[in-house]
Structure formats: C-alpha cells, structure tokens
C-alpha cells in the first residue's frame, strides 16, 4: 500500500463514518463498519482501479459490510447489552447457575479437543461462519470442515455426557 492511498483513506474517514451512521443509525455499529471497511480496503487495495475515484469503491465496501453485519445479526437473534440492562446480571436463579456450570464444562471440554476440531467449532458454531467460509479460512476442503465438525460435536457431546 502506498502513502497516497493511506492518506486518501484518512481523508475519507469522516465521510465513511457519516455513511455508516446513516445505514446503521448506531454510533458503535458505525465505528465497526468503518473499521471493517478500512481493513478490507487495505487488504484489497490492489483491486482498486487508480483511475477511478476511491469514494464509491469504499462506500460499496462499507455497504457490503453493513449487509453482512445485518444478515449475521438476523441469524444470531436478539442480543441484549448488559450495559443497557444491568439488572439482568443480578438474577442468580438455579437456571442461571446451571447455565454457568454448563458453560464452564463446555469450555473445558472444547479446550481438551484437538486443535483442528476446536478451530472448526469456534469458526462455525461460535463465529457463525458457513462451511465454505471456514474452509477458506483454514485452507481445507469443505468436506474436511464438515467431517471435523461432526467429530468435534460428537466428542463434545460425549465429554459433556449428552450423547
């Protein structure tokens, strides 16, 4: 990446933030979108045609990041921010205690899995990547992702006694 490209990115940060705010209507999400946009722009700067304006290219990246974020949020369901709702932390019911114990046991069981299986579980089940995306991240065929994930899920279920 050359210095002129970096300078242009810095100059366009206010415009990118304004556009991100207009899409997301939340400052925290707008900041995330701008960060994602800059990361993608730096990563793929060689795909930008220097004879074309930089703004439309960056806005397209930002809009695609917003679409990706929106889709991911829809599939995750409703999230509740504990900062906005501090009273939800004070509930110490039996179900809450049981959930924390199960989470601790699950984390320990995942830590005992082979690295390949733990990585697949993390990418697919926690991060929400598709099989194809996880395969691309790990540099393995999609079928390998599917078989490792199956073995990881079976091993996790056995370790937790929920076969």
Automatic annotation (TrEMBL):
InterPro entries referenced in this protein's UniProt entry, alphabetically: RNA_pol_sigma-70-like, RNA_pol_sigma-70_dom, RNA_pol_sigma70_r2, RNA_pol_sigma70_r4_t2, RNA_pol_sigma_r2, RNA_pol_sigma_r3/r4-like, WH-like_DNA-bd_sf
Family: Belongs to the sigma-70 factor family. ECF subfamily.
Molecular functions (GO terms): DNA binding; sigma factor activity
GO BP annotation list: DNA-templated transcription initiation
Domain RNA polymerase sigma-70 region: start-end pairs: 11-74
Keywords for this protein: Plasmid, Sigma factor, Transcription, Transcription regulation
SUPFAM superfamilies given in the database record: Sigma2 domain of RNA polymerase sigma factors, Sigma3 and sigma4 domains of RNA polymerase sigma factors
Stored PANTHER family: RNA POLYMERASE ECF-TYPE SIGMA FACTO, RNA POLYMERASE SIGMA FACTOR RFAY-RELATED
Start and end residues of each RNA polymerase sigma factor 70 region 4 type domain: 106-156
NCBIfam families: sigma70-ECF
Protein name: RNA polymerase sigma factor
